[in-house]
Structure formats: C-alpha cells, structure tokens
Amino acid sequence: MGISLSGRSFLKLFDFTPEQIRYLLDLAKELKRLKSAGVAHRHLTGKNIVLLFEKTSTRTRCAFEVAAMDLGMGVTFLDPQSSQMGKKESIADTARVLGKMYDGIEYRGFSQTIVEDIARYAGIPVWNGLTDDFHPTQVLADLLTIEEKKGRLAGINFTFMGDARNNVANSLMIGCAKMGLHFTACAPKDLWPKQELIDKTKKIAAETGARLRFTEDIDEGAKNADVIYTDIWVSMGEKEEVWESRIKLLKKYQVNGALMKRAADKAIFMHCLPSFHDTNTTVGADIAQRFGITEMEVTDEVFESAQSVVFDEAENRMHTIKAVMYATLR
Ligand code: CP
Ligand code: NVA
Fold first, then answer.
1. Which of 41, 180, 257, 304 sits most deeply, having the most CB atoms within 10 A of its CB?
2. How far apart are CA 303 and CA 257, in angstroms?
C-alpha cells in the first residue's frame, strides 16, 4: 500500500518512519520540479491555513506563506501582539477556535508541549515551525539539500559544530539517524543533547545503520565530514546574559577555513540561518562592541565560500514545507 500522511500533524521527526520521511522528500522534489517548470499546482484550492508565531521568523513564515499560495490556499498570520493568543485566550481555547475555521495550523514558539497541545485540541493538522526542543521542517530542507548536493543520504558523515543541544541540532540528530547518516555532535560536553534524547535516537540508529558520535575534539569532529553544519550560539528565547559564557564555551568550535580544511574533500557547509558571520546586524554589531569578535559560529570567509550551500538550503524550506502541507491536507 502507498504511504498516506493525510490528516496527520508534523510535530517532531520521532513520529515518522524513514519511509514516510523519504515520501516527503520525494514529494518535495516533485513540487520543486513543477515550480521551476512553471507548472501550476494549486492542489489545495479552497483550503485555508493559519500561522501562529510567538517568536520571530523570516524563512519559516515566508516558506509557509509562499507554499500555501502556490498550493492555492488562503493564509492568515497571527502573533501575540495582534491576537488574543496567550494574553486573553489560552492556547487550548485558541486551538479549538482555529480548528473550526481553518484546515491547518503552523505554530512557532516555546515549549514542545504547546505545539503538541494545539494538535490535540485543534482536531486538524498542526505543523511545528520551531519550538525550544525541535525544528523538524528545517531538517527536511537540510536532508533534501544534502541529497541534492551529495547524491545520497545513507552513509554521509554529518558533523554539527557548536550548540549541539539546541532545537536544530536535536532534530538533525534524529533526522540523520532516521535516514542513515552518521551524526557527530562536536561541542563542549555541557552542550551535548540530553541523554534521554540520545538514548532514544540510538535505538533508531541501530535499525538504520547510522552511527552517533559525541566529541569535544575538533580534529575528531571535523575529520572526514562530508557536511559541516552550525547554528547560532544563543537561540531565541534564551536570556541575553548567556552570550558571554556561550562565546567563551564555543569560540574554538567556530567553523572557519582551517576547520573546513580538516573535513573531507568537497565537504559542504550548512547553516539553518540566520547567521552571525559579520557585523551587519544589530546583534552582530553589539557583540563585536562588547566582546571584540566580529564573526561568531562561522567566519565570513566560509559563509561566502563555494562550499557554502546555505541559500539553496533556505530555498528548500519552501519546497519541503509545501510537501508537508500537501501530504497532510490532501
Ligand atoms: N531557519 C529558520 O527557521 O529561519 P527563520 O527563523 O527565519 O524562520
Ligand atoms: N536555534 C535557532 C534556530 C533559528 C532558526 C533558534 O532557535 O533561535
């Protein structure tokens, strides 16, 4: 029987089998092909979705909006400033109201429990657009990008450098394990994923042949890596005060030219973005003034190099999110 995800929510990668993830990636490829050929694919005309953002976004919001419009759907954007959500109306009540009006809900915010609760109360598909714990739609785009650039997923040596217990790193570890990539977290021990998450992911890896590795050693982490991935050192929702200690902890894990040289020949550099690779942002300029560093998790040299695939990766957010919406609403 063919795979169907109709009516399902997309909350975390643990909920999906490797075959279902493969199905979403193949669907994304097909939708990308149609878009570039200029072939209309308004398969969900007449449906409407709502996007709830309790944290800021460029890529995720735009990906959902463009993908929904390409599929023929109407879109509403809500944040706490312009709606009752959170202040005057609980998440549970908001979810039940929206479930009566819309066909699907995207949520970006804080704890994973909130997005799971919305799915429970709304009675329609709910998509996780990033929580403190996970960022599953990001990882679909990352897997698609790796497959496009490297021609395969299984057996790829994937290294995450930096804050390896953030939402993106957690989801990458699970995504790699599901699809048979060998995942290395190269980070100070205090920033490794939670043991409970590692244990759960190791069970998946045992079934797919993926290897999981955790190291503080940069040489070991970078050696033979086909993909070097990093993310910002302080995530949305974390306290401003953590910058100083985080910079001290992660400085030596910066992805720079010397580190890329230690990776495999033709290694690619990936980043979910946004990135602090220069001082052309208010945060970047402020950090430069306070701590005297002008580049953080990645140097401008690597970010702008031919090895960097970050903008293709950003584009793929749209194609993969479109696949998730189409698969769950069709
Ligand atoms: N990568 C990502 O989720 O970007 P935004 O925060 O801009 O949505
Ligand atoms: N870890 C980052 C990802 C942003 C897309 C954050 O949560 O801020």
1. 180
2. 10
